[in-house]
Every structure is written in structure tokens, then in C-alpha cells.
Amino acid sequence: MSEHIKLPEGSIEKTTTTLNLGPTHPATHGVMQNILELDGERIVSADQTIGYIHRAFEKLAERRPLAQITTLTDRLNYCSSPLNNMGWHMTCEKLLGITTPKRVDYLRVIVMELSRIADHLICNSIMGVDAGAYTGFLYVMQYRELIYEIYEEICGARLTTNMGRIGGFERNFNDIAFQKLEKFLEEYPKALKEFENMFQRNRIFMDRTIGVGGISAERALNYGFTGPNLRAAGVDYDVRVHSPYSSYQDFEFTIPVGSTGDSYDRWLVREQEMWQSLSIIRQAYQKVQSFTGAEAEVYHADVPEYYLPAKQDVYTKMEALIYHFKIIMGETDIPSGEVYHSVEGGNGELGFYLISDGGRAPYRLHFRRPCFIYYQAFEELIKGAMLSDAIITMSSLNLIAGEMDA
Amino acid sequence: MSLTNEIIQQRLTEKFGDLVGGFTTSYGMLQFEAPKEINLKVLNFCYDDPQLGFLFLTDLTGVHYPDQKGRELAVVYHLHNLKENIRLRFKVFTAIEQPDVYTATGLFSSANWMERETYDFFGIHFVGHPNLKRILNVDEMDYFPMRKEFPLEDQTRIDKDDEMFGRG
């Protein structure tokens, strides 16, 4: 490719066209650039440039106490922030040796699966948009809105949620949150079914996606694919099953897998995962309701060094005041150690590699960002394909620029 | 059948003897290190050995330890055996004056960008990498920002001119 680019401008020896796809292009759904060499409409090669929204989170984290890093994780995959938040809290809990009560685990499962649905819903409906079907996208957005309203009741924010604390949640879920959850559980399946009917056997959509951007299981593993993109290629790797966290072992669910690893399979896997997520949420909600007495009010573990005390205690009790001060000022030394923890994020295995040297902030924190790792396969996926296939392949990969650039 | 940390350690010491060392288990994950010259041999062995079968590179990153003379920079590999569902962490250390480490791109395609990222932030030079250039930072950058000699601003510093921050 580069020799084509090096030819002088207007050179008649150049037989291909160089096209800049991005960095700000409506079809890239994020700030990323692709320099494509096109032979007619066929893609000869692609050169990806990323990093346009790099914000140095790993560096910033080296000066922040654990609790303040949660806000950084929000901004990784911002389509499913609560998932990142929970993953980060669990990493801290692993380092600190904190076990959370069952009710906290189940509440976390509800939130995590809600955000998985929100994430997959965006990705699948955007794929529709890129194939020319705008209606489905607009139609399902009201259900993402419902999910965001549930977030609002839980933590007060919608997109960058900063939800939960080390050890649990900052407050108990209120009644409105549960009412909205019930409303969602009742109304969403119908809409999802309609959405599915619109695309799944739609001749135009199938023609646009089947056999487009496919990858074999071996190549996908070699490229470090995880999440729905790996499962679409036929590998049933899911962190929730392989290394259960937050009591996922208590739930009954299946892992949908595809076979060809193409855009259509990725779409189908996400679609089926949403149904599974719904079933997990129902089970978790049932389990949450089954708690009685004092247990039904538990929403955090008893870890005073890391969990902020209630405000009225801060004003009246000495210990609470001390803990409050130490947490807010970040004056708690964390134990030294190295820990890797991963959760099944919206688009794959989201890992946190945390090295602590016993100071107040991590010595080193590295995010394993799934879409940063699998996006490098993009050139292989689209080589020889049409330009319009590249667009739909890109949206089927569920690339989130915030996560890619960290 | 089932692979354990002990078996992995045994297999590695059988193969490499004293070259691999520093075996510890942290939070259930086996961790060890080897000289940087044999990093590819170790990775290849972990990949090819029928008993080990670590086919999946989960993560590759760097760490800077300015106080360790001669081994200031570390490259950390997280490998995963998906069948047996067991992970391991493998480290190689290199001196900062000559931060050359062999690339793992021949074995794992996923190492390509992860090594570029590690180069970008720590200046670790991956020998044999097909396209070793900056990935997240601008190409013109002439330093490696994740190294510890670039500390973030101290939030409590008092030499700021308060008027410039609307606090005067």
C-alpha cells in the first residue's frame, strides 16, 4: 500500500484510489481513521489510525486513590459504563480481599446485564442503520432510555454512571428503580421480538451481512478476539462461565455461539445474548426479592476503610468522620500485590491488571480493552471486500472509540 | 488431565531449568519470569507444548521500575489456556539503556498493537515487529509518557499562581 501512497500526486501509474474513511465520518461511529486503498470499489488494503481520543487513563490512575478511578472506567466503553464500574470494583475487592454479600452480587448482576442489553442494542440497531434501516434503531432507543432511567434511579447518572462503590452500592435500589425494572422486563421482550423480526430474516439485511467480514475461530483466537465477536466464530468462551464473578454460577443461562464469524453471526449472537440477559435479570430479580428481614436491606459489604459511611454518622461519630476523611482525601494505603481480574464486558473480556506497591494509588494499572485488541484484525476482515461491506463490518464489531483509545 | 499451577511450573523447569524462576502465585494466578533473550522460547513452549497449550494471549503490557538497576522495564504477558481455563503471568525484564525484547507477533497476531502500545508508552523496542510505531500518541512525540520520570502534577503543590485559576 505504502508504495502507492508514495507515488507523486497525479501519477498515472497509480491504479488504486486512496480514500480516507474517518476520523470524523458518520459511518465510523467514533473517532477513528481508516486509510483505504480502493481498486474500484474493492478494498486492497487498510491502514488504521487510532488514538484520537486518548486521555491517558492509565497514567492518571497512578495518582488516584481506588475510588476515584471508577470515573475513569466509565469513559472506556461508554455504552455500558456500569459494567466497567462493576469490573473495577471487583478488581479492587479482589486485591483487598473483600467478599460481597449475595444481595450485592445479584443487584450487580441486574445492573451488568441491563448494561449488556444497552450495549448490544446499540450495536445491533446501528448495524441496521448502516444497512439502511433507520427505523429499528429509533424504535429500540426508547428501551435503552428505559435502562438509562433505571441507572438514574440507582446512581443519579445516565451515561457516565460512576455506579457502585468498593464493597457494594452507594445506596439501596429504591422502589422506583424496581418498578422501572419490572416495566422494562414486561415491555422490552415484545420490542426485541419486533426488532428481531425486522432484521433476522430480512432478505436485504441478510444479503448485506452474510459472508461479510468473516473470520475463522483460529484466526479470531490468534487475534485475541473475545466476547460476542469470538463467540460468533464458534468459540464458546465467556468470562461469566469460565471464571464466574459476582455469583454468576447461581444463574442458568446458555452461551450462544455462531459458526462463520461473519457480521450476520455477530448480530445473531448479540441478539441471543440479549434474550439470555433478560432471563438472567429475571432470575436475579427473583433472588433479590427472596431476601427477607435485615438481609433484604443489605446493599454493601462491611468495609469501613473503603466504603463511605452514612453522612449523618460523619457528623455525629468519630470513627465515621475519620474514615470519611481518609477515603475522601485518598489517605488509605492499599495492600501491595498484583491482581488481574476480568469481566465479560459489552464487547469482550474487559480486564484490569493492577499492580500496587502499598501506596495510596496503584503503581500501575492496565486496562485490557477488548476492542483495542480485536480492531487490529479489521484489515484482514475487509481485504478484498466492497467499501460498503467495510462499513457494516466495522459496526458489527462494536468498536467503541473511548475503549480503544483509553 | 486438569492442568494446575504446579504442573505448569514443573513443565517449565523441566524444559528451561534455572533460566525460568521467580515462581509465585498471586491471587491464584501463577507468575514467573525469564531472561528477555528466551522470551520467545518460553512463549513458544507454552503455546506448543501439548500439556500446556496456552493459545490465547490475553494481555501484553509494560511496567517501569526505575529503582531496579539493569531491569528497569518489564514486559508482562498474560496467557490463557481456554480449554483448561487456567491463566498465567509471564514477565521479562530489560535494562532501560537497551530496551530490546523480541516480538511475539510471529506467534500471536494480537501482540501487534499491544506491543505498539507498549512501545508507545514505555519505549520498549520489540525486535522484529513488523510495524513498530506509536499508536495512541502523536508520531512527533519524543518521550515515553508512562515512564515514572514523568510524574503527574501534584494536586497539593502550592507554587501555583492562584489568580490564574480563579481563586485569587
Structure description:
The complex is a heterodimer of chains A (406) and B (168). Chain A has 406 residues and is mostly helical. Chain A folds into two domains: 2-49, no CATH class; 57-405, Cytochrome-c3 Hydrogenase, chain B (Orthogonal Bundle). Chain A contains 18 helices and six strands. In chain A, a hairpin with a 7-residue loop joins strand 5 (348-356) and strand 6 (364-368). In chain A, helix 5 (102-130) runs antiparallel to helix 17 and helix 7 packs antiparallel against helix 12. The mean pLDDT of chain A is 92. Chain B has three helices and seven strands, in the order H-E-E-H-E-E-E-E-H-E. Chain B has a five-stranded mixed sheet with strand order 1-2-5-4-3. In chain B, strand 6 (100-102), helix 3 and strand 7 (125-127) form a beta-alpha-beta unit. Chain B is elongated and about 65 Å long. The chains are: A mainly alpha (406), B alpha/beta (168). Chain A binds chain B through residues 50-51, 54, 56, 58-60, 62-63, 94-95, 219, 221-224, 235, 237, 242-243, 337-340, 342, 349, 351, 353, 355, 363-364, 366, 368, 372-377, 405-406, and chain B through 26-27, 29, 31, 55-59, 61, 63-64, 76, 78, 82, 85, 87, 89, 108-110, 112-114, 117, 121, 134-138, 145-146, 150-152, 155.
